[in-house]
């Protein structure tokens, strides 16, 4: 007897630093310094969505703390969408990152508003210094 495991591409997922990032640590942890630009990328595999128009699959909703981000309310937040082959890529940019920008982010499509996409989430950390300090692994130096 043998077991067959089929790994399917996610319909919607958020990319880590590299497209081949592991999905074992979900949600992704993303680290940014105050004042930098937060950049999050969401990938939609349009060939996995049946009977949807291009408008429906490019109308990406970004959320922070499960609340939709209103792109009209803050000049420092913008979103772009590109279509290439079977992939739709939505990029959320938040300039001049502050501590208030830290938290859980997710992306989705309104046509799937009742479905959760665990791979389409990231936790943004805005910290001074390197990311090891957040994990408690930074080396302390006595002066």
Plain-language structure description:
This protein has 143 residues and is mainly beta. It has one helix at 54-58; strands at residues 12-14, 28-32, 38-45, 61-64, 67-68, 77-84, 87-94, 103-108, 121-126. The strands form two sheets. Strands 2-9-8-4-5 form a five-stranded mixed sheet, with no helix packed on it. A four-stranded antiparallel sheet has the order 1-3-7-6, with no helix packed on it. It is globular.
Key terms:
single chain, mainly beta, 5-stranded mixed beta sheet, 4-stranded antiparallel beta sheet, 1 helix
What topology does this entry show?
Blueprint: E1 12-14, E2 28-32, E3 38-45, H1 54-58, E4 61-64, E5 67-68, E6 77-84, E7 87-94, E8 103-108, E9 121-126
Parallel strand pairs: 2-9
Antiparallel strand pairs: 1-3, 3-7, 4-5, 4-8, 6-7, 8-9
Give the amount of beta strand, in percent. 25-35%
Strand order of the largest sheet: 2-9-8-4-5
Number of helices: 1
> What is the terminal-to-terminal distance?
63 Å
Helical coverage, percent range: under 10%
Task: Write a short abstract of this structure.
With 143 residues, the chain is mainly β.
């Amino acid at each position: 007897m043998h077991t067959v495991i089929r790994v399917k591409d996610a319909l919607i997922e958020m990319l880590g630093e590299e497209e081949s990032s592991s999905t074992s640590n979900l949600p992704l942890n993303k680290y940014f310094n105050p004042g930098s630009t937060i950049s999050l990328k969401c990938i939609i595999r349009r060939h996995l969505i049946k009977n949807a128009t291009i408008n429906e699959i490019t109308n990406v909703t970004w959320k922070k703390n499960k609340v939709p981000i209103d792109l009209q309310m803050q000049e420092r937040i913008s979103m772009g969408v590109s279509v290439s082959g079977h992939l739709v890529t939505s990029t959320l940019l938040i300039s001049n990152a502050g501590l208030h920008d830290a938290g859980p982010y997710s992306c989705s499509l309104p046509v799937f508003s009742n479905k959760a996409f665990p791979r389409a989430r990231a936790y943004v950390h805005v910290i001074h210094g390197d990311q090891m300090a957040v994990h408690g692994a930074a080396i302390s130096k006595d002066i």
